[in-house]
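Researcher: Next entry in the queue.
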Amino acid sequence: MLCMQVTRQEKCIHSRMDAALESNRRSEQPRLTPADHAWGQTESFTSRMRWPLQNITNAAAESAFMPGIVLPDSALVREATQFIQDTESTLLFNHSSRVFCFASLAGQSRALKFDPELLYVAAMFHDLGFVPRYSSLQDRFEVDGANAARSFLLTHNIAQSEVDDVWTAIALHTTPGIPQYMHPVVALVTAGVELDVLGIGLPDLDEAKRKGVLARFPRTEHFKEDIIQAFYDGIKHKPETTFGNIKADVLAEKDPQFKRINFCSIIRASAWRS
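Model: Structure for this entry, 274 residues:
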């Protein structure tokens, strides 16, 4: 009986996501851009939270997720967790969970004010564009993940400005040099990704906290190669979307036939005479 209930709930989530995505695709506005929806009554961060931010005690914060990391036990968080766990591989689910943990810890160390629920959704959805069901034929995988997260948040009546922050955080998480100057959610998702994939900031991470995160969301024995393969599997069907993107390095590594689009060649071949 429990399995049947979980299956129906999973189908319901996917159905709502698909409906939101299809609604946006049929819109006269640009497809799934961050600002093409507006609604009346929206739910503020503080009203969504289980406790007022300023009143979160250490014990309450820890009971919500894991020691040292604040994450309210909200319907938004629970549904996002179930959706990603049911949709992504264990490799990507654990990676995304670690990204949230490392992003949250980075936010604390930098004394940044951020919405932990929005940070969680952005971190958990940031690689959803690798999943075939949510991978488009023409958009970068980052945009696919951002679009899916946007549709998910719309089903929860999240304020447009907050949806924009999550969309941007996912869309820019492979664009180094920019996110650190933007909204904390944008900056921290990239920081979490860089720490888990590239090891940037790892020497500065408290050892006990690192072990705690890895104990709950372990890396595979060959994570470095496993994640590179996952990246390749998620984008190999649309290599042209890696133009100007660090994922071009993945294709060059895995596909001997891959040829990068050359920016200078595009300039020289343009319709301009000079």
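Model: The domain at 9-25+41-236 is CATH 1.10.3210 (Hypothetical protein af1432).
Researcher: Noted, moving on.
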